Amino acid sequence: MQIPRPDPTAISRPFWDGLRQRIIQVPQCDHCDAWIFYPRRHCTECGSRRLTWRRVSGRATLHSYTFARVATLPAFAELPLQNLAIVTFEEGFNANTSLTGMNADDIHIGMALEPAFDVIDEQGTTRLLFTVANIDPTR
């Protein structure tokens, strides 16, 4: 069974198009500077409809996580565990995601993460996952 594909709307399409290019872009309010994730037509802080898509770093911190030992969908049944997570981007907003490329014993709240772009079909549809950050002191 195939991994579920996103069904981009006019509002969310820039996010999904960015992931195809390994770019994370999120709307930011032009009035109060709040980041709006998940994408919406208006700012969740001040109600403004003046939003601009901006590129974000992708660096994040693990805020919370759990292991789903029973698949959340049949497409994930072959995975031994689903590592479901909430990450806090360096820019200050949270996102739901999954973790990849790490052992369960190495996962801990507060750990530094970086994006892992998972291409799931021939059309280039890409999921945003996170993995342990390769800490480079020159960044």
From TrEMBL:
Source superkingdom: Bacteria
Residue span, ChsH2 rubredoxin-like zinc ribbon domain: 16-51
InterPro entries, alphabetized: ChsH2_C, ChsH2_Znr, NA-bd_OB-fold, Thioester_dehydratase-like
Pfam families: OB_ChsH2_C (PF01796), zf-ChsH2 (PF12172)
ChsH2 C-terminal OB-fold domain sequence ranges: 53-117
Gene3D superfamilies membership: 6.10.30.10
PANTHER family with a match to the protein in the record: BLR3430 PROTEIN (PTHR34075)
Protein name: Acyl dehydratase
Species: Kineobactrum sediminis
